[in-house]
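Question (not urgent): is this output format expected?
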Amino acid sequence: MANTTIYDVAGAAKVSLATVSRVMNNPEKVNPETRDKVLQVIKELGYRPNAIARGLASRRSTTVGIVMADVSRASTSQLLGGIIDIAKKYDYAIKIFSMSEHEDIKETMRAVVAEQVDGILFLNDELDHDQMEMVMNHIKDAQIPIVLCNVLYGEDIPSVSIDYEKATYEITKELLKMGRKKVYLFSTVRRYSVNSHKVKGYSMAMEEAGLEPLVFRTSGDVAVNKLHFEEFLKNYDVDGVISVRDSIAVSFMNEAIKQGFDIPKDISIVGLQNTKYAILSRPNLTCVDTPVYDIGAVSMRLLTKYMKHEEVTASKVVLPYQVVERESK
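Got this back:
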């Protein structure tokens, strides 16, 4: 049968996806009668016979699936750097799966499971609650270990991140203590899981100071947000900016300078990433340093523990952050 998937095998053998996976990866854990039935179906359907033979004979190499949305963001490339460096130490194979909010999520997850990955690092922070529920249900059915990498969702899903709410709260308080009153948070029109926590921390600090939260949503596309900021600076009074992305902060800074504002005398600007854009800007951008490389590396180590069935003392890992003072604040 052409393009036979693990779903076809499970359906024909009348067993779960997890049972098919165990037959291929840990056959000794399956009772002989069931194992023989599944192997017979695999043979009849012609489901990846070479890969199965390798797995049963010599144990196939560990494969980690990385599910992501957009590789073009600077933070994503740094995350991948940390993940891949640790994966190399363990000699893992990496398979990358692209999943946008507009794609068929069920089909994407079927493809991930069908590739027989041993674990999943989930980097896609663009999905809403219902879409994430759909993803997690597929992973639960397949019994594949998963770690959310810089994605915030659910209390019972292993994850690695920083405390974005606290970080944004503290940097907002810092700007307010400097005497800034019209402090805006620049976020994105598209909703990301971590950005909602940044908005929450910022809003809490503003409300505690008796000020109205001022959230301005723009595009991650520089060509688009440049036009937004041209109009923004003509129509809004602003003396402080905190941006969920460094690229957005720098785009705003460039337009503000073009319109005659002195940075940081007139407007303090802070990024919430500390990517390469921060040191390429003039003046250099002050940032809350999100250690995305470390988040990637720690996520891979945490997933390794789950794949090896080792003891995990904390399924939710929150890494430290720091403020990198430069010239824009």
